[in-house]
Amino acid sequence: MMDRRLAGIDIGTLTCRLLIADVPPSGPLKEIRSERRILRLGEGVDQSKRLKPEAMDRVLCCLREWQGIIDDHHVQLRAVVATSAVRDAQNRQELLDRVKSETGMNVEILTGEEEARRTMLGIRSGLPSNISDVLAVDIGGGSTEFILARRAQAPIVRSIDIGVVRLSERVLHGDPPTAAEIQQARDWIQKETLHTLRALPRPERLSFVGTAGTITSLAAMAQRLPVYEPARVHNYRLALATIVNLEQQLLSRSKTARVGMPGLEHNREDVIAAGAIILRTVMETLGERECLVSDLGLREGVLITLADRTVS
C-alpha cells in the first residue's frame, strides 16, 4: 500500500492550522506543508456565546486560501475540525453553512473528549521511545485539556473551561494585568485544576507533556529563537523555573512592549501572558518541575484518525 496525501484543518478559538502530509501504511507522517494563522474566531464568545461576523469572515478568507493550497498539492482526502469556540457558540451553524457553501468543506465539531483523544494520537506519534505513561496538557483559546495516557489503556480526559482567550477576556483586563487580576487568575486556575484532576490516578514515572501554541511559543522564547524552528521546539524540556522567568518578563510589559520579544509569535502578544499564567499555575498545582514540549498535537491526530477511518 502506497503513501496517501491527506490534509487536516483545525479551526481553533485563537488559531487555525493546516497540515498536509503523506501518510505511509506504518511509521510517522511526512509533512508536506504546514500553516497556522492567529484569527481569533473565539473573540467575545465567552460573554456573548456568539461568533462575530468579522471573526467568521477572517476564518472563511483563510479557508478559501487554504482550499487552493490543498488543490495544488493533489490531496486525496481532507478533514476539517472545530473546537471550543464553535462548540460554545449558539450561531455555530451559520459558520458551518458558510464554510460548506464557500469552500465545499464539511466541518466536524469535536467534543472535548474527542479533541483530547486526537491530540494524544498526535503527541504519541512524536514522543521519544522511552516515554510510556503521559499526562499531557493542551492549552487552547477557550479551554485546557488534560489527557492521561498509559500504554494499552484508553486515555482519560479532563477539561477545564479556562483558555488564553477566555482568561484574558474574563480576568486579565489591565495592560499589563494588575497584581489583583493575576492572583484572581491563579486562584481560578488552581481551583479548577484541583477539582477536575482530584480523582485522576497519577502513576509513578509519569511524563508531563505540553502541546499547542502557548507552550511551543514559551519553548521558542526560552531559546530566544529569531525564527520558529519546529526541530528545536519539539521535545524541548521546559523547566518550571524558566516558565516563571518568562511569565515575569511578560507581565512586566504592556502588550505593545511584548512585540518583538525573541521567540514570541506575532499576534500572540496579548494572550501569551495568560498562557504563561495557566502553564505555571497548573504545574505548581500538580507539583511538576518540567514540561516536555510537543510540536505535534491535534492536527497530526486529525490526519492519523482520517487515515485509520479510510484504510481500504
Features:
six-stranded mixed sheet, 13 helices, alpha/beta, 312 residues, globular
Description:
This protein is α/β, with parallel strands linked by helices and 312 residues long. The chain has two domains: 4-112 and 302-309, Nucleotidyltransferase, domain 5 (2-Layer Sandwich), CATH 3.30.420; 127-294, Exopolyphosphatase. Domain 2 (Nucleotidyltransferase, domain 5). Helices cover 44% and strands 21% of the residues. It has 13 helices and eleven strands. It has helices at residues 45-48, 53-72, 84-88, 92-103, 112-124, 164-170, 179-197, 213-222, 230-233, 240-251, 255-258, 272-286, 298-309, and strands spanning 4-11, 15-23, 30-38, 77-82, 107-109, 134-139, 144-149, 156-160, 207-211, 237-239, 290-294. The strands form two sheets. The protein has a six-stranded mixed beta sheet with strand order 8-7-6-9-11-10, sandwiched between helices. A hairpin with a 6-residue loop joins β7 and β8. α2 packs parallel to α4 (92-103), α5 (112-124) packs across α13 and α8 packs across α12 (272-286). The radius of gyration is 19 Å and the shape is globular. The N and C termini lie close together (9 Å). The mean pLDDT is 91.
The largest β sheet comes out as: 6 strands, mixed
What is the first-to-last residue Cα distance? 9 Å
* N-to-C series of helices and strands: EEEHHEHHEHEEEHHEHHEHHHEH
Major sheet: arrangement of strands: 8-7-6-9-11-10
Structural class: alpha/beta
Name of the CATH class of the largest domain: Alpha Beta
Mean pLDDT: 91
CATH topology of the largest domain: Nucleotidyltransferase, domain 5
Tell me the strand percentage band.
15-25%
Helix content: 40-55%
Gyration radius from CA atoms, angstroms: 19 Å
CATH architecture of the largest domain: 2-Layer Sandwich
Low-confidence stretches: none
Tally of individual domains: 2
Our count of helices gives: 13
> What best-fitting shape do the alpha-carbon axes yield?
globular
What's the name of the CATH homologous superfamily of the largest domain? Exopolyphosphatase. Domain 2
Number of strands: 11
